[in-house]
Amino acid sequence: MELPVGPLPDDPLAAAAKFHADWLPRVLELLDAGEPLVTLVFAPAGLSHAGWRESAVQLLARERTPARINAICGDDPAAISATASFIASAPGLTGQYLVVDGNGA
User: Fold this and answer.
1) Residues 78-102 pLDDT 10s
2) Do residues 73 and 98 lie in contact, with contact meaning Cβ atoms separated by under 8 Å?
3) Which residues are registered as beta bridge partners of 69?
4) pLDDT tier at 103, thresholds 50, 70, 90
5) CA distance linking residue 31 with residue 65, whole number of Å
6) How many other CB atoms are there within 10 angstroms of residue 25's CB atom?
């Protein structure tokens, strides 16, 4: 299941706080209900956001195994859809933060 996250503040500390206060409970609800795959979709943000996003996804993946949790960062719908399909078809892929730009990167 894809879960668009946002909007989040531009400041990385404020964004992390908002994610943990507003979005993490939603993710945990899905996982507690038995959702086997949650793919978070973040809007592009500065490099200073990558650390907290990666950490959150990795910790969730470790704590909630066998469920799979990954994240996509981008704003190109086709790239997000293709990456989400790839994630869904890769049963061993979890705890990843993938940045897409629609140009094959």
Assistant:
1) 999 999 999 999 999 999 999 998 7
2) yes
3) 38
4) confident
5) 10
6) 10
Question: What pLDDT sits at residue 104?
Answer: 59
Reduced 3-state DSSP string for the chain: CEEEECCCCCCHHHHHHHHHHHHHHHHHHHHHCCCCEEEEEECCCCHHHHHHHHHHHHHHHHHCCCCEEEEEECCCHHHHHHHHHHHHCCCCCCCCEEECCCCCC
**Region 2-99: CATH code:** 3.40.50.720
Q: Say which residue the tokens 């989040």 belong to.
A: 8
Residues 92, 12: Cα–Cα separation, whole Å:
30
pLDDT > 70 in the chain, percent: 98
The number of angstroms, rounded, from the C-alpha of 83 to the middle of its chain's C-alpha atoms is 12
pLDDT digits (tens, 9 = 90+) for 16-25: 999 999 999 9
